[in-house]
Amino acid sequence: MMNKKILVAYFSASGTTKRAASLLAKAANADLFEIEPATPYTAADLDWTNKKSRSSLEMNDPSSRPAIKRRLETMADYDAVFLGFPVWWYTAPTIVKTFLESYDFSGKTIVLFATSGGSGLGKTESALKQCAPNATWKGGKTVNGASEASLKSWVESLNL
């Protein structure tokens, strides 16, 4: 793992995934990159109980690809990417697809991690693989409340 250059890229709507990503970056000795929407989400946008809220509309539209604020110009430098997000509607928010479709992941390993109020990753990996089919995918996991030590153990078990 010491020879591999690792990135932890994440989208966080409320700060929960950001905290997990920061711990994971420390545990994996990785760089950190926040996937920020060009138009930030408001509390009203994130109201999943409102069928007309921005997040509900995006998640119900398979072609939705929210714009990202900035590009990571050094993506080619990384061998492995941990990709994190909150679970929305039992899958990744559509902005994660925007991120994956913005780069060439050929020859890179992608590992998913997520935070969730109750559900796991479900079929998220198979849905996201379509956005980066030339990457090598390793099984991801939810990291709610994970410690830096448990994340380090997980990273080491992946044999990146």
List keywords for this structure.
27% helix; globular; Rossmann fold; 160 residues; single chain; 5 strands; alpha/beta; 5-stranded parallel β-sheet
Structure explained in plain terms:
With 160 residues, this protein is α/β, with parallel strands linked by helices. It has one domain: Rossmann fold (3-Layer(aba) Sandwich), CATH 3.40.50.360. Helices cover 27% and strands 19% of the residues. It is built from 5 helices and 5 strands. Helix 1 (16-28) crosses helix 5. It is globular and about 45 Å long. The model has no long low-confidence stretch (mean pLDDT 94).
Q: Count structural domains.
A: 1
Q: Please, how many helices?
A: 5
Oligomerization state of this entry?
single chain
Computed Rg: 15 Å
Relevant CATH superfamily: Flavodoxin domain
CATH class: Alpha Beta
* CATH-assigned fold name: Rossmann fold
Q: Shape from CA axes?
A: globular
